[in-house]
Amino acid sequence: MQSIISKGKTLQEAIDTGLYLLNVSRDEVNIEVIQQETKVFFGLKSKEAVVKMTKQLSHAFTPAYEKKAEGDVKEKTDAFQLLDQMIDVLPEIDRAPADSLQDTWKAELKKPLEQAPPNELAGKVWVQNGRLFCQSSPNKYPVVTIPEHVKLFRNRELVQEDTIIVSEQDFYEVTVAEEERDTVWEVKMDHNKLKVELYVKPGYRMTRSLVDIEPDSRIKLKVDEQKKVNNTLSYTDVMQVLEERRVKHGFHQAEIVRATETEESGLFTIATGIEPIPGQDGWLDIQIDMDSKKGPREIDHNRVDYREIKSIPNVESGQVIAVVHPPIPGQPGRTVTNEPLPAKQTHPIAVRAGKGIAIIENKVIATEPGRPHLEQRNHIAKFSIMSKLTHPGNVDLSSGNIRFKGDVEIMGEISERMKVEAEGDVMVHQSINRAHVTSNGAVIANGGIVASDISSGKNNMMITELGIALEPIQFDLKRINQLINQLILSPGFKASDFSRSGLQPLLHILLEKKFKHFPSLIKKYKEIIEQGEAYLIDPVWREMDEKLSRIFLTLSNDIVSIEQLKGILSQIDEMYEYSQLPVEPNSYIHTPNVLSSRLFCSGDVKIFGKSSVNTKIHAGGKLEISGALRGGEVFGRMGVKVKEAGAESNTPTFISVPADQQIQIDYVLEGTTIKVGTRKYMFSESRRYVTASLNHQNQISFV
């Protein structure tokens, strides 16, 4: 007889647990109550109910789920007939393979229940030869954890839980999943058709088997995996795809073979084209030293040696200034589809001769003595010779204003309300006080700047402004030209109608009907020319003003032809393109101190002395202040570097740079505002060593 001890919080729970473990009904066991459940100390402590259950002897083994409905045939005692009866009444659910399970079950019924001494295997579970065995104990029940890729069936029902309690009263079948993957591969070609790559992920077959486990009260089923790689990619498969992609050139046969034999995922370059070899744009070979960006040499933090100013060597008449080299064309390449791939187009450098310059063959030659000056915008360069005016004293009422087409050197100071304008550099050995200084080159004020307006690189600023004014003129003139071409092609138009009188009558009609605002655009351009005529080095801007005014603003009887109108439009296209080119600035402002002034420069601005106070500064290059920045607004297109920024008197101090630049401050006072791109930040407390820029989230960050 089989007996167990069962426990529970209540007597009924202890009995139900025992019945479940013995897999019998209450009529088939003798129940002996060993201990009733009790509760003491208001339920804080309690004793479990304990019962001893002894299974009654029966003539045949009949599980509970095998009971038949009323009217069934009499009980069968033959083992094989009993097995058929059990199978018939089982529900149809997820199950192990029926044939193997049925054979195993029949074999299990013929085996004796005990295969080992009870004292060694009681309460344990184990795996042997791919099968699960277990033996219950009155005090402990074996537990099994089911891993991934394993299915455990209990009495042909799939176990859904990850961990279960097992009993020898149930039959268990374990199956393991096998896995098979096909080879994955893909051919990719880059957009330039210069490279073809083959990605391969080999297929495989994964075979799994259940590992034997020694008897234990708790086990986790283990699986042994055997992976066999099966790369089904063939050389023919690859070549067929390459043929479909029309790849005809640059095959790497060894890489194709390696890809078909690989057992690991990888990327293989199976064909490459020939990249074009880039050429070289035209360039200038400067024959003399033309570096005009050197200012006074700094001795220490607050002192400079003005005797050590870099001087630009003068040239003599007939001296070669530069040699112009033509572009070197590149070599074309070839795609994997055997198509030619042209090299990037090279551009010649266009050289224009200014005052005192002649261009003979490929040489730039000075025709008069003086300082050579170069203005370069991308592939366009203009040379000129600057003469020099030296003023021995102060610029005041006794000397009058100074306007000179060259360099100006002033040995004294520039006094109140005086003006100095130069096409070259302006050097002032003393201070600039309440004056106006305009230069197309550099401005150097050794004694500082007080309450003055300083403009350096005026020619560059004028060209930029004129380019903005030309843009709408260019747009409307193209539309006018298109309308005229449409009229010429129309059936009612006779070329002879305008061959004698020109396009003037037609232009007047178009201006009255379609382009009433066009004359005002030309007038705006004309105003800019008149205001800044003294600062324009190239006469082409003035000449365009005269052409546009004569055709569209006056009632001139001059004949205007279609070819003439197209020529003006072509010239405007070139001028506008020139105005948009980045400037290689030779303009800068250097001074030790600046107070209550306005500084505008297309290049760098450097305040190398003690301070900049209540001043507005715009630098097209980099702004550097070696001392303190107290109040005012400053901007540096290529960044700002300041030693100390802000004022204890809460005077507003504003520093800004574009979104792609940064602000560096050694010490910043509370209340100072910075702006990077469109983002602003005000310091609520003083800080040291600040570097501000925009991060990837377009927010100001500090390093």
Automatic annotation (TrEMBL):
Matching SMART domains: Jag_N
Protein known as: RNA-binding protein KhpB N-terminal domain-containing protein
InterPro entries: FapA, FapA_b_solenoid, FapA_N, Jag_N_dom_sf, KhpB_N
Record-annotated RNA-binding protein KhpB N-terminal domain positions: 5-56
Lineage of producing organism: Bacteria, Bacillati, Bacillota, Bacilli, Bacillales
